[in-house]
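Hi everyone,

Forwarding the result from last night's run.
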Amino acid sequence: PAGIAYLASKLHKKPYFLYLASIWQEETEVLFRWSGIKRKLFLGIYHRINGLLEKYAVSNAVSILTAGAATLLHYKNLNNKIEETIPRLNWPEIKIQTDKSATKCIGNNLLYVGGLMSRKGVDYLIKAMSILNNQKGYEFRLNVVGSGPEQMSLEKLVMDLGLSDAIRFHGHISNGPKLYSMYNNSDIFVLPTPYGEGFPRVLYESMSQGLPSIATNVSGIPHKVVNEKTALL
């Protein structure tokens, strides 16, 4: 969509600005919907077209806002009129928890909040749950909050691995008291995304509730999170 908007702006000779949530070419395989022989034939072409549109759109933008320092560093050499934004949070509605770690022992209730799509890596988290719960003496629970195109396949994976009693899907929960109750009733927050992030707002949310967080060392995450200090990467 951004590529089409760029071409329309050039055609009508209109200035434009960009908001970059993540690196375009990291998203290529996620955005490409065809499978089978069509995927083999056209994915490479789509990737190159995406790269060219990305280069020209970024280079000619009047100004750019980007989510996350990794994205900023990636694009700064193409256009220095770029500024990093901070993920929006409804701070007035949030009661910041400052003493949770001192009053609550780490337990076995894990939480994931986010979209259910391939680039979020929820399947890795489900497989990790299988490894954990197959070890003697371990019994973890995982609550999955969110919705998306991968929900049915993820639910099937849970059934195939025999984890129906250990993993519960809650669907989408809007930002508000119910969601923050989920954070407060959990022991560890896990974000298993393998790529394609700016800086995930859910990490700010989980840390605002004093919830120990585990995340992957990708994209903008290590630019804001210090390993073994503010989270475990």
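The first strand starts at residue 17 and ends at 20.

Cheers,
N.
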